[in-house]
Amino acid sequence: MAEHILGAHDLDVDEIQIPREDWFESSDTLQKLRKNKKFPTIWCAGCGIGIVMGSLIRAIDHLGLSNDEVALVSGIGCTSRMPVYMDFNTMHTTHGRALAFATGLKIARPHMQVIAIMGDGDALAIGGNHFIHAARRNIGITSIIVNNAIYGMTGGQYSPTTPVGKQATTAPYGNIEPPFPICELAIASGATYVARSTVYHVLELDKYIQEAIQKDGFSLVEAVSYCHTTYGRLNKFGTAPDMMRGLKKDSISKSAFEKLSPRERAENSKIVRGVLHVDDSREEFSRVCRQLSERVRTGGSQ
Amino acid sequence: MNIPFVDRIEIRLVGKGGQGMILAGMILAEAATIYDFKNAVQTQTYGPEARGGASKSEVVISSGEIDYPEVINADVLVVMSQEACDKYALSMKADSLSILDDENIDCLPITPFVRAPITRLALETTGKTLAANIVALGVLVGLTGAVSRQAIEKAVLARAPEGTKEMNRQALLKGFEVAEHLNEPI
Amino acid sequence: MVVSLMQGNEAISWGALAAGCRFFAGYPITPSTEIAEMLARELPKVGGTFIQMEDEIASMAAIIGASIGGLKSMTATSGPGFSLMQENIGYAAMTEVPCVVVNVQRLGPSTGLATAAAQGDVMQTRWGTHGDHPIIVLSPTSVTQSFELTIRAFNLSERYRTPVILLTEGIIGHMREPIDLPDFDALEIVERVITDTPDHYVPFSNDLGDVPPLASFGQGYRYHITGLFHDPMGFPTQRLDEIDPWLERVHHKLDRHLDEIVMVEEDLQDDARIAIIAYGVSARGARHALKLARSQGYKVSMLTLLTIWPFPEAQVEELGDQVDRVIVPEMNLGQLALEVERMVGRKKVARVNRANGEMVTPQMILDVIES
């Protein structure tokens, strides 16, 4: 394991061997995990979702948030199993609806940090309507979409982010549907913070998730991941490490991207990583609701 | 043997959507309950159109309990459009009375009726056809006494927006006046 | 308070406010929309929130989210929207989160007739979401009961940690009747009470009676909620020794408290050989028919069901034992009649059905009494 990742956990290599019962006590960030929940996780060995979970707990720890003030809401899918492992107020809801549940919770508890964690099929196919409307309202939810371009839990069906031509169990002749650009969709819908990185670029993810949580309004971090078990196997992308290396090779930072010539930019097929959009002009929605109530109660109805 | 429902009066008000038939029903029911201290239930049926289509408002008035809330066989029918007449001039008592806005209705019901140019009188009295429903209420109450004149006047004024109260009162009085001059049902 | 003329939908809205509802999420649909419109106007005045969601699925999700955040929450809809809410109603049942869903029924199936009423969703309220689950469904017969049963719906929902459906329809929803609203402060309102400390809190305990107390999020009681079968701490489980006790408890939590949940109105006559069993707006026509029949010398009893789920089995069975015939009028092709038949036997039951948007008339019922 890389030094900087261990460092982020306040761990050194020897400490990896510590007995399980003492494991949680060995790091501040691990205090964010549930002690009474059976590990390991349900994710396949080598899956990128656990890396996003690591980034999320480090981000919350860095911000000094107490476990009580964080609510984690998810839908259905591999990614949506994440909340169960984390010692916050956690809610594993129905497929696609995390943001709708989170909207009600944020209004009821405006001072909580409400984080919605979703997969690409969850957030964009069945939950696409809630996604654009949560962004439109600018409700103060930090949304994290782990994009592995496939329905993993059901065994590898194509999702709204599967590239054209790629194999899936429901696209045996190659996918014929064009994918959604997640971040662009969020920006167009009104999100006030939008960033993207990959599970290879963990420190970027840590930083973006931290910034997203700090934003008042609707924020989105797209964490590009992979599914070696289904998508990788069907498309002959090799092992998890192979796919991890692919994320390094096939992505480019926003600053490097901006230095490209217009033609190179137009032809770019790599994942652009970086903070893609910040808008500080819009008021957060649960606050707008409270202001409305205040206005009505003090007599102004217009 | 006691006969239930002896003082149950069933009134049906029908017209085009936008003619204010549902509002007229509400006002009539408010006159009965709030100002005449009786019991009343108002129900309504309307089409999907916000304006146009056929709209029906029913009011049942009684001094006792009202179980079945809709009109079973109408005692009084107010008709403001031909389409509503075709659709809703049904299930009338034999001795019922229909009040027709005679410039809007040319195909007549078979039960007893009277005719008055309700919409035109509203326009002449108030400058607005919108007040036709209030004129109609005046004719209805003037002819039938379903509620007291004082009650209907209070109910109309309570519902009328500020600045239109006098106009609505004039419309109601015009209805009373029309009722005085109408002869026996034809 | 002064008697006023009020629509059923308005009375539901006032009932919700009186019960302490402080969050409403909904989507416009005839004939329920007045509830959303009125709560959009009234909720901000009491510090509550109205939100118009993107659809009924989101509305149902949002009220569960707000409820777990500590706000008493409600949505209101009609057939097509109610169909969309089903999955999340099951989620509320599974996670034992209180919430109130108003279904102002209209004529279906599908878009049907938006402006015509019906009682066609009776079975859907019971079995609309997949899987065996507990649910409470109340059905008012008047504007005053629309107010009273809405408060009752909130109270039962909080007391039993269950979604409660208030099942009305377009006639009572839009009907105006005089109502004498009580002083809200004098009403009995059930609030969440939690006595355990966070360290000892077991959100889905099977050992604390049938209804473990509910802690809202954000109060220091961190725990997990999932639509998966879960252990007492809320964590997913596939163990039969954890699934079975949960199943047993959530069904017992209603079965063992029928005295408080099941409400009926009895109007019995000695030696009656005929009974009418009715609910909702059809009870109005039935009562009219009852009075006509009695005035003609017939002996007829009547049972009005205000709680329709859990079905008032004991009351229906007892009445069925006393009479030869049971008449069940409904604005559908026979739904609750199936339950009555289950309790009293098919041969005794005479169904009176109308499923075209019009009410079952007193004459239709009288014809059966006279036959």
What would the keywords be for this entry?
heterotrimer, B: 186 residues, alpha/beta, Pyruvate-ferredoxin Oxidoreductase, domain 3, six-stranded mixed beta sheet, 6 strands, 26% strand, C: 371 residues, Rossmann fold, 2 domains, seven-stranded mixed beta sheet, five-stranded mixed beta sheet, 13 helices, 15 strands, globular
Sketch the major β-sheet of chain A: 8 strands, mixed
Summing up helix and strand content along with how strands pair, one would put the structural category of chain C as alpha/beta
Gyration radius from CA atoms of chain A, angstroms: 20 Å
Strand order within the widest sheet of chain C?
3-2-4-5-7-6-13
Cα shape of chain A: globular
Tally of separate helices of chain C: 13
What is the number of strand segments of chain C?
15
Can you describe what's shown?
The complex is a heterotrimer of chains A (302), B (186) and C (371). Chain A contains 13 helices and 10 strands. With 302 residues, chain A is of the alpha/beta class. Chain A folds into 2 domains: 1-32, no CATH class; 41-297, Thiamin diphosphate (ThDP)-binding fold, Pyr/PP domains (Rossmann fold), CATH 3.40.50. In chain A, the strands form 2 sheets. In chain A, strands 2-1-3-4-8-7-10-9 form an 8-stranded mixed sheet, with helices on both faces. Chain A has a two-stranded antiparallel sheet with strand order 5-6. In chain A, helix 6 packs across helix 7 (182-189). The longest helix of chain A has 14 residues, at 49-62. The radius of gyration of chain A is 20 Å and the shape is globular. Chain A starts with a helix and ends in a 5-residue tail after the last helix. By secondary structure, chain B is of the alpha/beta class. Chain B has one domain: Pyruvate-ferredoxin oxidoreductase, PFOR, domain III (Pyruvate-ferredoxin Oxidoreductase, domain 3, 3-Layer(aba) Sandwich), CATH 3.40.920. Chain B is built from 6 helices and 6 strands. Chain B has helices spanning 21-35, 82-88, 118-126, 132-144, 149-159, 165-181; strands at residues 9-17, 39-46, 52-62, 74-79, 92-101, 113-116. In chain B, strands 2-3-1-4-5-6 form a 6-stranded mixed sheet. In chain B, helix 1 (21-35) packs across helix 5, helix 3 (118-126) packs across helix 4 and helix 4 (132-144) crosses helix 6. By secondary structure, chain C is α/β, with parallel strands linked by helices. Chain C folds into 2 domains: 4-186, Rossmann fold; 265-370, Rossmann fold (3-Layer(aba) Sandwich). In chain C, strand 11, helix 10 and strand 12 form a beta-alpha-beta unit. In chain C, helix 3 packs parallel to helix 4. The N and C termini of chain C lie far apart (46 Å). Chains in contact: A-C, B-C.
